[in-house]
Amino acid sequence: MLHFRRIICICCLLLWGCFAYAQQSDTILENKIASITNDTLIIQEINAWFRNNYRSKPSLAIHYCSIALQHAKKLDLKKQEAKILLRMGVVNKIKGNYKQALLNYTNSKTIYRHLEDSLGLAKIYNNIGILNRTEGNYPIALKNFLASLKIYENYHQDNLKSQTLNNIGLVYKDMQDFPKALYYYEESLALKEKLKKHSSLLSSYINLASINSQLKNFDKALEYHQKSLEYLQEKPNSIDLAKTYQNLGGTYIELHNYDLALQNLFKSLKIKEKLNNKALLTSTYSSIANAYYLKGNLNRALLYRLKSLQAAKETHNLVVQKNTHEELIRIYLSKKNTKKALLHFDYYEIIQDSLINQERIKQIAQMQEKFDSEKKAQQIALLEKESELQEIEVEKKTKDLQLKKLQRNSLLVLLLLIVSVVIWFSRSYYRSRRFNKLLHLQKARIEWHKQTLDQKNRELLESNQTKNKLFQIISHDLRSPLATVADISKLVGIYIEQKKYNNLSDMNEELDQSVRRVLNLTDNLLSWSLSKSGKLPYQPEAIDLFQSLKNNTETYQSVANRKKIQLESKVPGSILVYSDRNMLDTVIRNLINNAIKFTPENGKVTVGAQANYDNALVWVKDTGTGIPADQLTTIFDVDKDKSHPGTRGEKGNGLGLILCKEFVDRNKGEIEVESKAEEGTIFKITLPLYTKDYSIV
Q1: What are 326-357's pLDDT values in tens digits?
Q2: Which listed site, 72, 80, 421, 690, has its alpha carbon 20 to 30 Å from 332?
């Protein structure tokens, strides 16, 4: 505790020292100006101070610029006057004094034009364009930027030309003219790369990625996001890196690649959590929730929507709170939880009303300010009129009093009219709000019924596909090995009668394989039928992957040995997952069996696992024949015929992979496959890690 207090004291002393130093530097400048008699040196001192302080001390910057301007006028240094006026315009823009900034720029432009200084004029056009864009006056902004660009082209000022091209692109983006914005962004980037301006490449990459996303050129957007990542690896910046990963995640969402989207979004989340910036975290939580929602994982989507809502509450961001409540309504309707959907609808309306009230208060304040300003102007006019009427006859005084009374009555009528309009709008709003709420709820109910009907149709289609698959397996895949067993049993009797006992040992392996295939298929059929009927028990518990993979590997060791295949398990240590033990064993057994089946002699099958950010990754990798690319997308579909013989003619039916997919989904996990023909295949499974207070939402 004492150590902590010392650190606090040291920090306070450092802050006080910095503040004192800043105050001292301003005092030193004042003393220098007072002691220097040479006007040129005074201007130089102020220029040196300005470059380092104009953003942090805009009011002082204006003060010192005014002093420098007086000395420049005294020496008749016209070019120096123009530069100082330009700087004053920049500072006034920073302060939000746009009218004064425009006046400064206009006076500077007049001097540059008189001096016939084209490059000075180009700078003025560029700064006026930036001011026009800030005020939303896009056509005038474009006119000034293009005038600046023409001068830079004539004087071959490629460095300044690249900045102006980028500014033109920004204006076209604001105007929603994305093709033209893309053209100017690309021209700007080409010049920067030609000039090797590495310090400004990142902004171009970000702009080009954003505009390509707007144009639905997502592959091109990904290319520029990757360039941003490469740049940030050389020059790390946590905030830019977090934003780039989030933008990558958003682009992958547009491409419907939700797994890659989540990978990048979690990278962004990890960086933002280290920064501990709640305002930044809200957008990442929202994007992760959106990815999970589109992926169909409503529980994870709900979890991150609630995190986004909490962060928005902590940062008092009403707009994000409103949007998050709207998304929560959609999630709860999808989960058929109408009660919670209505609860969040009420929260949504309360915040919406609050935002509307804030906007109304702002408008009323503006109206009041305008009214007070007009009233003050009228009062000044009346006072001036009264001063003049002192020299006028009594009759004119009477007329003036009547005029003041008329003006006062007019103001009262105007005020009453404004109040009446506000009251009318308020009543209209509250009358329509209830009606809109009923419409919104009715729409939500219709959407819910539509989603329910669509779900029933999908379940019916899946049931038909399951029935067809079951008939196919019973009629062919189950009958075939049983027929082989029957044939072998007949031959056994014949060989015994003929006393050909040596032939019996040759048939032993074939009989063993047929029986094993029947048992494996029977187990899969039983598990599949129980799963489809909803009678398969789901009892998740903490499972040690090290022991689970070891047991299943040992089960298939003899099968692998007969085929001369190296089978090994690689798990770095104890990794606990939260899963149903029987389902997990079924998945691992099927994947190992498939790997051995499609791996030739002297091949290798590896089973492994590792802990990741918030889940565990399990894989089964082989050096087998691989899976053709056209079959990868339908490998887990129940309505596709995926029966292919193994390297020794082993028969299969594809049921094992279907069962793997269903059991992994049931355990809140994911399964994916990567394969190349004649190089091998790897199946990857992600499962939730186990914690002591674990509970699945």
Answers
A1: 999 999 998 888 888 888 888 888 888 888 87
A2: 690
Determine phi and psi for 497, rounding to 5 degrees.
-65, -40
Instruction: Count the alpha carbons within 13 Å of 546 in the hemisphere toward its beta carbon.
Output: 7
**H or E segment to which residue 267 belongs:** helix 258-275
Angstrom distances, CA of residue 332 to CA of 445, 448, 513: 12, 10, 50
From CA 166, how far away is CA 183, in angstroms rounded? 10
CB 300 within 8 A of CB 285: no
SS3 569: strand
Residue 438 has pLDDT above 80, yes or no: no
pLDDT, tens digit, for every residue of 220-275?
A: 999 999 998 888 888 888 888 888 999 999 999 999 999 999 999 999 999 988 88
Nearest to 607, CA basis, from 594, 130, 615: 594
Amino acid symbol at 597 = K
Q: CA 472, 473, 478, 483: dihedral to nearest 10 degrees? A: 20
Residues in CB range of 258: below 8 A, 6 or more apart: 252, 291, 292, 294, 295
CA dist 565 and 568 (Å) reads 10
Residues above pLDDT 90, as percent of the chain: 32
| DSSP H or E segment with residue 154 | helix 138-154
Containing H/E element for 501?
helix 501-533
Written as one letter, the residue type at 573 is G
Report the candidate in 651, 569, 649 with the shortest Cα–Cα distance to residue 604.
569
Distance CA 555, CA 558 (A): 7
**On the CB side of 566, how many CA atoms lie within 13 Å of its CA?**
6
d(CA 617, CA 670) in angstroms, rounded, equals 10
Q: DSSP state, 690?
A: P
Strands 615-622 and 604-611, bridge-based pairing: antiparallel
Neighbours of 297 (CB within 10 A): 18
The two structure tokens encoding residue 685: 């499974």
Which residue pairs from 84-88 have beta carbons closer than 8 angstroms and sit at least 24 positions apart in sequence?
85/111, 86/123, 86/124, 86/127, 87/50, 87/54, 87/61, 88/62
Neighbours of 252 (CB within 10 A): 22
